[in-house]
Amino acid sequence: MTIDLTPYLPTHGPKYLAIARALSEAIRQGDLIPGTRLPPHRQLAETLGVSVQTVSRAYTEAEKMGLVQARVGSGTWVNAFDDGRESEYLRGPEPRRETPLIDLSIAHPVCPPRYHLHFREALAELSEHANPEVVSACRPIAGLVHQRERANDWLNRRLGVPGDVDDRVLCNGAAHGLMLAIATVVQHGDIVLTEALTDHGLIALSRTLGFQLRGVAIDEEGVIPDALEVACQRFRPRAVCLTPTQLNPTGATMGARRRRAVAEVLSHHDVWLIEDDVHALLEPPGLMPLAAHLPRQTFHVTSLTKATMPGLRAGYLSVPRSQLHHTLPRLRATSWMATPLIFEIADLWLANGMVEALAQEQRELLAERQRLAARLLSDHPLSSRPSSLHVWVSLPPLWRAEELQQQAEQEGLAITTAQPFMVDQSPPPKRVRLSLGAEQDIARLAEGLQCLATLLEDAPPPMMQIVY
C-alpha cells in the first residue's frame, strides 16, 4: 500500500526515529488502522527519499515500540493496539539471561522482606476477625460500608480530599479509578488535556477509550498555568487529567501557589479535573490536593500501591456527587465491585496505623536511595524529589536516550527513556528515567547507578554516533 507519513514526520532527530514516530502518530490519528500492511522497505524508502537501511531501522524501532509486527514471508503489519510505548520496559527481564538485568526501569516501591511478614500477619488476623461480608458480598456496590467509612476518614484527615462516605468508590488500584473517572465524563473523540510528559497508563487509556489526549507545557512544578489557560481556550477540553504530586516521569510537584493558580484556570473554564494523586503518601502530610480547591468538579484518584506494597491494589476514587450515578454502572461493567479481601487488609492497616508507618518508612528508604543517586551521578544534572520513586537524568550532548538505553541493556542495566511518557509527537527530551525501588538490594542499585555513570562519562560507540 501507499501511505503518506510526511504530515507526521518530526523535523528534528535521526531519520529512522522520525519515521517510527510518524508511524505512531498516523496510527494514533487513525490514518493507519490495525491490521494494515505497511509498504515494503524499498518502496517506503523511495517514497521518503531515504535509504533502505533507514526504513529497516525505523520498522525495527516501531516493532520495539509495539506499533507493528514483522511476519516472516508476509511483511510488516500494524498491531491491533497501539500500546507499545510502554511495552518494552513492562515486559521484564528476559529469562534467557544468565545474570538478571539490574532493573531501574519500572516504578516500584522498596519492599524489604519484613513487608511480607506484615502481610502474613494481616492475613492471620483477618482469618480470626474479618467481617463475614468480605466473602459473602456479591452485589455491585461502591465498596463495603465499613471499608468506605474508614477510607473516608483517612481521605479527609490525611490527604485533605473533600467529600463524605457517599462520594467514595473503592476500585482495583489507581489505574482502575482513573479509567472509571475518565469514562464517566469523557466520550469517544473528546479532547482531554494533560501534562506534555505524563504517565504511560493515561496514554494507553486514550487509545483504549478513544479520546484525544493533548499535552500542556510543564516545568519543575508540573503543568504551567498560563500554558493550561491557552490550551483550554484553544481545545475546549472535556476534561483535564493532572498529577500534581511527583509527576511520572519527571517528579515535578506543585507548590501551594501553583496549585491555586491551576485551580483558578480550571474553575474559570468550568472543566472537569481528574486528579491522579497516587504518589500522595510519598510526600509528608500537609500537601493539599487540587480537589480541595475544586470539590464540585474534581475526580480524585489515589491508592496504597506506591507507598506500601504494589500488590495491595486498594484504589480510592472520590466522585463529585452529581456524577456518582454515572460512575457506578462503569464500576459494575469493569469489575462488578472492588475485591473486598484487598480492602479488608487496607481497612485493618488504616485502622492500626500500618499504612502511615509503611509510608513513613518508604519515604525514608527512598530518601536514602535518592542520596545515593545524587552522589553517584553528581556530574550530571538531574531532577528528583527527596522521597520520589524516580530520578530524571539529563544526558551529555553526544548521547541519545534510545542509544543509551540500548547500550545500558548490553551492560546489564534496564532504564527508561522519555518515549513512553510523551503525549505529542515532538523532539523527546534528552533524559532518562531511573526508578530506584525495584531493586531491593541497595548494593545492586548502586552497581546499576555506577554503571550508568560510567556510560555517561564515555562517548557512545562510533556506530551510535551516526545520524541516519
From TrEMBL:
The keyword Transcription regulation applies. InterPro entries: Aminotransferase_I/II_large, HTH_trans_reg/aminotransferase, PyrdxlP-dep_Trfase, PyrdxlP-dep_Trfase_major, PyrdxlP-dep_Trfase_small, Tscrpt_reg_HTH_GntR, WH-like_DNA-bd_sf, WH_DNA-bd_sf. It holds the Pfam family Aminotran_1_2. GO terms for molecular function: DNA binding; DNA-binding transcription factor activity; pyridoxal phosphate binding. The keyword DNA-binding applies. CDD domains: AAT_like, WHTH_GntR. Keywords: DNA-binding, Pyridoxal phosphate, Transcription, Transcription regulation. Residues 13-81 form the HTH gntR-type domain. SUPFAM superfamilies: PLP-dependent transferases, Winged helix' DNA-binding domain. In the C-terminal section; belongs to the class-I pyridoxal-phosphate-dependent aminotransferase family. PANTHER family: HTH-TYPE TRANSCRIPTIONAL REGULATORY PROTEIN GABR. This is GntR family transcriptional regulator. It comes from Litchfieldella anticariensis (strain DSM 16096 / CECT 5854 / CIP 108499 / LMG 22089 / FP35) (Halomonas anticariensis). The lineage of its organism: Bacteria, Pseudomonadati, Pseudomonadota, Gammaproteobacteria, Oceanospirillales.
